[in-house]
């Protein structure tokens, strides 16, 4: 059971210089995972048109969806739209519906800089409908979001069901065994269940065990069989209690 895939592109000198901490990629990772989408790449780029143009099209070709965040405001360093358009070899055009919304919003305060936010790559679409004051711009499979976390979250919430897939099912095991000794058991498990995703996370006092192991699969039968196989092959006493039951579909992993 294959997963749809995604890449995230964070645009902004402020992130790369440490002035602003990226809150958008962790949010998108959690949301997409809960929707059954596998995020396979996160890329952070400066506000440079040519770099955006060079990096985004290959991601769009490789992954089902690309989500960009940042660089779509009214100022000189908001160059994401221009970069994406250049990368795909299309013009930047004024989108009349966005221009109308901006004129209504700003009224007499509207400036040419404000109208810059109505520019989109030629051929892009607007999605999100009446739930949003300003819709999301989509060019092919690239969803272009603002960098302000609260606005990005509001816009993503309006279209999140677009991306829903078969959920990931997750189980967590607490193992009191050195991670180096555990590694061979996990390798064998992956060999037995090729579609399984296994995580191994060292723990420290006062956890009461040495490694948290997570097992994930889109097939609940595979997940159950993998749990049982690992239970059988671990040394006596290594498993602390019973493996936790799989979480509800789409639940994010335990982050203790």
Rg, Cα atoms, Å: 22 Å
**Main sheet: strands, sense, barrel:** 6 strands, mixed
Number of helices: 9
Instruction: Show unreliable segments.
Output: 247-256
Structural class: alpha/beta
β-strand percent reads 15-25%
Order of helices and strands: EHHEHEHEHHEEEEHEHEEH
Span of the ends, CA to CA: 29 Å
Question: Which descriptors apply to this entry?
Answer:
disordered C terminus, alpha/beta, 256 residues, 36% helix, six-stranded mixed β-sheet, three-stranded antiparallel β-sheet, single chain
How would you describe this protein?
The strands form three sheets. This protein has a six-stranded mixed beta sheet, with helices on both faces. Strand 6 and strand 7 form a beta hairpin. The two termini are 29 Å apart. With 256 residues, the chain is an alpha/beta fold. The chain has helices at residues 13-16, 24-34, 49-62, 80-88, 96-106, 112-115, 149-159, 179-192, 220-233, and strands spanning 5-11, 38-45, 65-69, 92-94, 119-121, 125-127, 136-139, 142-145, 169-175, 197-202, 211-217. The chain is elongated. The model is unreliable at 247-256 (pLDDT under 50). Helix 3 (49-62) crosses helix 4 and helix 8 (179-192) packs across helix 9 (220-233).
Short description:
This protein has 256 residues and is an alpha/beta fold.
């Amino acid at each position: 059971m294959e997963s749809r895939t995604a890449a995230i592109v964070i645009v902004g000198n402020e992130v790369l210089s440490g002035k602003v901490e990226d809150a958008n990629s962790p949010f998108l990772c959690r949301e997409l995972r809960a929707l059954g989408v596998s995020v396979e790449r996160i890329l952070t780029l400066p506000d440079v048109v040519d770099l955006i143009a060079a990096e985004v099209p290959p991601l769009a070709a490789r992954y089902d969806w690309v989500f960009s965040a940042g660089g779509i405001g009214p100022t000189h360093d908001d160059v994401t739209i221009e970069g994406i358009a250049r990368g795909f070899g299309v013009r930047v055009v004024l989108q009349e519906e966005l221009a109308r919304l901006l004129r209504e919003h700003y009224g007499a305060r509207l400036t040419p800089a404000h109208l810059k936010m109505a520019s989109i790559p030629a051929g892009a679409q607007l999605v999100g409908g009446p739930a949003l004051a300003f819709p999301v711009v989509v060019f092919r499979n690239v969803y272009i979001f603002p960098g302000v976390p609260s606005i990005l979250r509001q816009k993503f919430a309006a279209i999140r069901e677009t991306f829903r897939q078969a959920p990931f099912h997750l189980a967590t095991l607490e193992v009191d065994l050195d991670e180096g000794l555990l590694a061979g058991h996990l390798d064998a498990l992956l060999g037995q269940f090729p579609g399984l995703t296994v995580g191994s996370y060292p723990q420290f006092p006062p956890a009461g065990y040495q490694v948290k192991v997570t097992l994930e699969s889109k097939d609940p039968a595979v997940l159950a069989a993998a749990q049982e196989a690992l239970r059988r092959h671990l040394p006596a006493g290594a498993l602390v209690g019973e493996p936790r039951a799989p979480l509800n579909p789409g639940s994010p992993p335990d982050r203790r």
